[in-house]
Design brief:
Elements lengths: L1 H23 L3 E2 L10 E2 L31 H8 L4 E2 L1 H5 L4 E4 L8 E2 L4 E2 L3 E4 L13 H6 L2 H14 L14 H20 L15 H4 L12 H9 L3 E4 L2 E4 L2 H27 L7 H40 L1 H23 L7 H21 L11 H13 L6 H26 L12 H20 L3 H20 L2 H7 L3 H4 L8
Antiparallel strand pairs: 1-4, 2-3, 4-7, 5-6, 8-9
Helix pairs in contact: 5-6, 5-9, 8-9, 9-10, 11-12, 11-14, 12-15, 13-14, 14-15
């Protein structure tokens, strides 16, 4: 019984060894092209163990038809003498060798037993290599630039920022950024799929601020600002205190564009996920790409419809909001021509009835603009050209030695008038670049604030001749006193008696 058990155990051990041998076989095909006669190290052979190496001589290589299969001490000694190098002579003729060894779980070198096991070296007359496995259509698609653009679009679509009511949040930098990148990827996908953009010649008729947003009038030119406008669905806007209502055509195109944008976003995310479904067959891939192409074409059509209708209506609204500026620019140009004509005649410009009428209209327009744009002051529109005429009368009749304060006020009134003329001349160079919301133009607001402040005082003190005469007399008397008593300036500026009792006061 002991003999049978021993025989049975030996048979099991032999079967186990054969099973381990079959699992340990690993074929490494070595191809090496050498340009010199120096030995070249083969990194493919380094995995056979760090404690031994194999070396083939340039002639009479031990690899030629030698097969080491046993594990006796003689072959172990021969194996330990050969480092992992192979010469040029053997690699130049395309020699391929197959080295089989045990897997990493059972190394070629058994540290416990100290033996090399099951190493075979075979020399073949011609090189043989198994053909590479052909890529599937999914794998080929995942290696194309179309898939990279699709991935870029899907990643940005997943990072959209939303408000509490489920709308895209364009006010946050993150939301606006990812939407812009998503639209850029959409443009690139349409170009790669040979989709030609619809006619965009209407962009040539855009005003300059809108033309600057587009790199070219022939490209797709998808902008996040247009999607934001479509999402807002505003039935009207208020500019300079006036209400402008959008047409039903614009609102309808905006809803269609927003729906197409949401469908395109969902389709891109679903299509990107489908490319990781290994069960997807070739006809399904082609069908889904064709469907995706149709989505891009439909999105472009709805984009063009909304962009054209919306921006043209915005341009009409902006033009109407700038009508006061246009009117002021036109009157100022006529005033300049009239001044030149009167000077050529040799007559005094201020006596021309045409010039007086133009100046009156100009001041009225300035008052209307002041009531709309001047958020710093009161926005008065009741300041007439008579204030300017009274100021010019003061400058002609009152000398510098009589009343410096009154002359200063009159000079300020005339100065603010000329500053407004200069601003309108500057705006005439390119009125399209002026913000239609007039209160957003800082230089205009500052000029109007100074205009209102000076002209408001002129209306109180210069329009009535008796009041002007009394003011001139009083200011003249005060100026004479201050020249004689310099300390009186200090007393007049102080508001409290205790502060006035300083060492500069005569009452100290």
């Amino acid at each position: 019984m002991a003999t049978q058990r021993t025989l049975h155990s030996d048979i099991e051990e032999d079967n186990r060894d054969m099973h381990e041998h079959s699992e340990a076989i690993q074929v490494l095909r070595v191809r090496q092209r050498v340009s010199s006669e120096e030995n070249i190290r083969l990194p493919e052979l380094e995995g056979l163990g760090e404690s031994y190496q194999m070396q083939a001589q340039s002639s009479g290589s031990p690899f030629a038809s030698n097969i080491f299969e046993s594990t006796d001490g003689v072959n172990e000694q021969r194996l330990s003498e050969f480092p992992l190098y192979i010469s040029q002579q053997e690699t130049a003729v395309g020699t391929e060798r197959e080295l089989t060894s045990r897997s990493d779980s059972s190394s070629s070198y058994n540290e416990q037993g100290g033996k090399f096991r099951f190493i075979r070296v075979r020399d073949k007359s011609r090189s043989q290599s198994a053909p590479a496995r052909p890529l599937t259509e999914l794998e080929e698609m995942r290696s194309t630039i179309e898939f990279e653009c699709l991935q870029f679009a899907a990643v940005n679509a997943r990072q959209f920022a939303y408000t509490r009511d489920g709308k895209l949040n364009f006010e946050s930098l993150e939301g606006f950024y990812h939407c812009s990148r998503f639209l850029e990827a959409t443009e690139r996908l349409a170009e790669l799929l040979d989709i030609k953009p619809l006619g965009r010649t209407y962009r040539c008729h855009f005003s300059q601020p809108y033309r600057l947003l587009y790199r070219s009038f022939e490209e797709f030119g998808y902008l996040a600002e247009v999607v934001e406008s479509a999402q807002e669905r505003l039935p009207f806007i208020i500019v300079n205190g006036e209400k402008y209502i959008f047409s039903a055509n614009v609102l309808c195109h905006g809803e269609n564009l927003l729906l197409a944008f949401a469908q395109l976003r969902d389709h891109i995310m679903n299509l990107f996920g489908n490319f990781f479904d290994e069960t997807l067959k070739s006809p399904d891939i082609s069908k889904r790409m064709l469907n995706f192409r149709k989505h891009l074409i439909d999105f472009d059509k709805k984009w063009v419809s909304f962009e054209k209708a919306y921006i043209f209506e915005l341009m009409l609204i902006e033009k109407d909001a700038r009508r006061f500026l246009s009117y002021a620019i036109e009157i100022e140009r006529k005033m300049t021509d009239c001044e030149l004509a009167e000077k050529l005649k040799g007559s005094i410009v201020i006596r021309s009835s045409t010039y007086k009428l133009l100046r009156k209209r100009f001041v009225e327009v300035c008052g209307r603009i002041n009531s709309v744009a001047n958020y710093v002051g009161k926005g008065r529109d009741d300041l007439s050209a008579d204030i300017l005429a009274a100021a010019e009368n003061v400058l002609r009749r009152v000398s510098d030695y009589r009343s410096k304060a009154v002359r200063k006020l009159a000079s300020k009134i005339k100065e603010t008038f000329n500053v407004l003329r200069l601003i309108f001349r500057k705006y005439a160079e390119n009125i399209e670049m002026i913000n239609p919301e007039l209160s957003s133009n800082q230089d205009l607001v500052e000029a109007l604030a100074d205009f209102e402040k000076a002209w408001e005082k002129g209306k109180s003190y210069l329009l009535d001749p008796s009041t002007t005469k009394m003011l001139v007399g009083f200011s003249e008397y005060i100026e004479e006193l201050t020249e004689k008593y310099l300390s009186l300036i200090h007393i007049c500026r102080c508001r409290r008696y205790a502060v006035c009792r300083s060492r500069w006061s005569p009452y100290h």
